[in-house]
Write a structure and sequence with these properties.
Helix 4 packs parallel to helix 5. It is built from ten helices and ten strands. The radius of gyration is 18 Å and the shape is globular. By secondary structure, it is an alpha/beta fold. Strands 1-2-4-5-6-7-8-9 form an eight-stranded mixed beta barrel, surrounded by four helices. It has one domain (2-249): TIM Barrel (Alpha-Beta Barrel), CATH 3.20.20. Helix content is 43%, strand content 22%. The structure holds guanosine-5'-monophosphate (2 copies), manganese (II) ion (MN) and sodium ion. Residues 35, 90, 122, 152 line the site of manganese (II) ion (MN). Residues 1-250 form the EAL domain.
């Protein structure tokens, strides 16, 4: 239980950081928002990435408290950004099972003063595995608040197109793995194009994630992908570094 105790203590002491990866409109590469990515600066082990502690947080139920901290901190940070920029927060599937999520989102918006339209919640399809009336009601209530909903890692895992019909998503985020392969691999490029067309047909925004090269960006622009995110434009940045970048741009 040593790791669990350590995680519990770090949550109690709020010893986490959020890094923000800018998201851009493909045409002109204007920043339109940023994705909140959780980091744990650890005294002995360095800056820990989510995959090294989110699973433990999920197993122990600590994700509820940690996820709520991320939500509140991301809203507080995003209020300082130029008007209209959207902050995207990743939700664990377990957070969608908790009835208090709706109230926590309302509270995070109210206490920060961030307009609901500037908060986007990213959900992976594993969260939607069991058709669940509670999940649909929750997502509909979040949507009714004015929050945006993004389907994350689209095309991987348990993808089902019916999720796009059932749930009120605003955005599809095309998974890094397809974007990473599109330059060398005709199949990956075909999948990316199909997802872009699907988004257009369903009136959803499409964000391509994991854009690492100028050529990938060019292909995505040519294919009509409206939004891009990735190391080619910017790595995830500490909150103050993002503010510096935004100040230089506006
Ligand atoms: O940069 P990156 O290594 O941060 O993110 C790795 C994974 O961790 C991604 O799948 C991302 O969705 C997830 N992740 C990042 N931040 C959070 C968070 O605050 N909550 C949850 N549940 N997942 C996160
Ligand atoms: O939430 P999601 O699973 O989409 O998490 C995004 C992940 O992708 C994070 O771990 C983030 O650091 C990572 N990422 C962001 N941009 C790039 C990129 O250009 N290339 C790769 N390989 N990963 C990226
Ligand atoms: Mn994400
Ligand atoms: Na993703």
């Amino acid at each position: 239980h040593r790791q669990e105790d350590e995680l519990r203590q770090a949550i109690a002491d709020e010893r986490f950081e959020i890094h923000y990866q800018p998201r851009y409109r493909s045409a002109g590469l204007h920043i339109i928002g940023a994705e909140a990515l959780l980091r744990w600066p650890h005294a002995e082990r360095g800056l820990l990435l989510p995959e090294s502690f989110i699973p433990l947080a999920e197993e122990t139920g600590l994700i509820a408290t940690l996820g709520n901290w991320v939500l509140r901190q991301a809203c507080r940070d995003a209020v300082a950004w130029p008007d209209g920029l959207v902050v995207s927060v990743n939700l664990s599937p377990l957070q969608l099972r908790h009835e208090q999520l709706l109230d926590e989102v309302k509270a995070a918006l109210a206490e920060s003063g961030l307009p609901a339209s500037r908060l986007e919640l990213e959900i992976t399809e594993s969260a939607l595995l069991q058709e669940n009336a509670g999940t649909l009601a929750l997502l509909s209530s979040l949507k009714a608040l004015g929050v945006r909903l993004a389907m994350d890692d689209f095309g991987t895992g348990y993808s089902s197109l019916s999720n796009l019909r059932t749930y009120p998503f605003d955005v599809i985020k095309i998974d890094t793995s397809f974007v990473g392969g599109m330059q060398q691999n005709a199949e990956d490029h075909s999948i990316v194009r199909a997802l872009i067309d699907l988004g257009r047909g369903l009136n959803l925004q499409v964000t391509a994630e994991g854009v690492e090269t100028a050529e990938q960006l060019r292909l995505l622009q040519a294919d009509g992908c409206t939004e891009v995110q990735g190391f080619h434009m910017s790595r995830p940045l500490a909150a103050d570094a993002l503010l510096t970048l935004l100040a230089r741009r506006t």
